[in-house]
Amino acid sequence: MTAAAFDPWIWVALAVGLSILEMLLPGYVLLGFGAAAALVAGGLAILPITAAPSLQNLFVLLILWACLALAVWFALSRVFSAKARSRRAKGDINDFESSG
Q1: Which residues lie below 8 Å from residue 6, measured CB to CB, with a gap of 6+?
Q2: Distance between CA 5 and CA 59 in Å, rounded?
Q3: What is the pLDDT of residues 61-87, one digit of tens each?
Q4: Residue range 52-65: average pLDDT?
């Protein structure tokens, strides 16, 4: 069970699945988890865990995934909030001007 969690392809599948769910449920929360899963997959592909898979190593891997997801979520919220601030309306949407 725990040995499969250290396979990078499991994390790639999780990243793709979360990204597809993000398209169905927009809000960029799942996108952060998906991007973090992709980063974990890349890290496992570059630096494979040579120790025997154990629950302690799995716990460290899940904590790393959660911390990366939080960092990606903060980065995405800063990017998207900056874009939202730049598109503010100048007037009230309910004010109508007559063109008469």
Answers
A1: 44, 48, 49, 53, 57, 58, 61
A2: 10
A3: 899 999 999 999 899 888 877 666 655
A4: 84
